[in-house]
Amino acid sequence: MFRIVSIWWGLLAGILSLQLGNGLQSTLIGLGAVRSGFESAEISLVMSAFYAGYTIGPVLAPALIHRAGHIRVFAALAAAAAAAIPFFPLAAEPWSWALLRFVIGFSLSGMYVAVEAWVNDKTENAERGRVFALYILSQLAGLCLGQFFVPLADPSSPLLFAIAAALVSASVIPLALSKAPEASREAPEPMSLFALYRASPLGFMGSFVAGVLWAAVMGGGPVFAARLGLSPSETAYFMAAGVAGGIVLQFPLGWVSDHADRRVVLTVTVIAAAIAAGWGATQTDTGLFNLAVSIAAFGGLTFPIYSIAVSHTNDHLAPAKRVPASGGLVLIFGIGSIAGPVSVTMMMDAMGPPGFFVLLAIACAALSLFAVLRMAMRPQPASIS
User: Fold this and answer.
1) How far is CA 10 from CA 180, 228, 293, 354, in A?
2) Class of domain 1-179
3) Global model pTM greater than 0.85
C-alpha cells in the first residue's frame, strides 16, 4: 500500500481536493435551490443538467486526451469547473444554474476519464484493484469531508462557493508535481459501447449497476430517511454510515481482487450486498442503529463494485483501447446514476420505505446472476487486442 501511495500520491491528493470542492458545491446547490424557492420541476432541471453534461464528457474526452495529454486535460477541465462554481450565488435562476451544472458535469466526467485512463495505462494487473480502490477511497473521503465546510458560513454566501472553486482549482497542483509515470498518448482506437460490452460484459454491467446503486443510495437515501420520519441529524448519520462502510472496505476488497479472480470477488460481494439489503428491508421499524448497520454493510460491499469492474475490464485490454474504454465505463456509470434515483423512488412509491432496500437487493441479485452466467459461458476471460 505504501509503495502505491508513494507513486500515486499526487493523483490521490488531487482527487481528494477535487471531491472536497465537489462535495461542498453539491450540498450548497441543493440547499440553495430550496432557499431560492425553486419549484420541484426546476430543481429536477438543475440536477438533470449535471447528468446531461456527465454523459457528454466521456464521449469527447478521449480525443482531447490524445491531443493534449492526460494531465493537461485534467487541468483544463478543472479550470472550467472552478470557473463555473462562483457564478451560482450571482445568478440564482433555474436556467442559469442548469447551464452551470451542465459545465460541471461535463468537466468532472472528463476529468475522471483522464485519471482512470492514466491509472490503467501505468498500473500492472497485479495491483490494479488496490490502486483503483485508493482512487475511489479518495473520492469518498473528499465527498464526506467536504460537508464540514458547510457550517463555516451562510450556505447562500459567495464565500463557500469560492472555497469550493478554490478546492477544485487546487486539485491540479499535486497532479502537476507528481512523479507518477506519464501515460502514453497513442491515438485511441474507436470503441463503441457495444464493442465495450463484447470486450467485458461483466465489467460493463458492473459499472452500470455500480452507478445505479451509488445514485440510489446517495439520492434516494435522504428520501427514504424522510419518509421514515428521521430527523435531519439522524438522516446525516444514516448517510454517513453508508459512506463510512465504503471507505472501510474499499482497499481490502481491492486487495482481494488483485489476488483472486475478480469475477468471483465481484459475484460474492454483490450476493453479500443483496443479503444485507434484504435484511435492511426488514429493519425499517427498528430504529436508527439497525438501519445504519444495514446501510454501512451495503455501502461497504457495493461502493467498491466500480473499481473492481473497471480493473476487470482493463486487465484484458490492449493499451490503445484503454482511453476509449475508460470513457465508456464512466458513461455507463453515469447512465446508471440517472436510472438509480428514478428506480428507487418508484419502488418506494409502490412499497413504502422498505422499497428502498428492496430495489438495492434486486439490483445486486440481478448482477450476481449475470456474473454467474458469464463465468459459466466463459470460464477464463479473453484478452482483447
Assistant:
1) 8, 42, 34, 42
2) mainly alpha
3) no
Please report how many Cα atoms fall inside a 13 Å half-sphere around the Cα of residue 110, on the Cβ side.
Answer: 33
* Domain spanning 187-385: CATH 1.20.1250.20: yes
What's the full length of the chain, in residues?
Answer: 385
Question: At 178, is the secondary structure helix, strand, or coil?
Answer: coil
Residue recorded with cell 509515470: 181
Query: Are 1-179 and 187-385 in the same CATH fold?
Result: yes
Q: Are 80 and 88 in contact (CB under 8 A)?
A: no
Directed axis angle between helix 305-314 and helix 201-228, to 10°?
A: 170
Which helix H or strand E contains 218, and what residues bound it?
A: helix 201-228
- As a 3-state breakdown, the chain gives helix, strand, coil percent values, each rounded to 5, of 85, 0, 15
Domain segments of the chain as ranges: 1-179, 187-385
Q: What is the pLDDT of residues 310-365, one digit of tens each?
A: 888 888 787 778 778 888 888 898 888 888 877 888 898 899 989 999 999 999 99
Beta-bridged to residue 317, according to DSSP, are 384
For cell 508535481, name the residue.
177
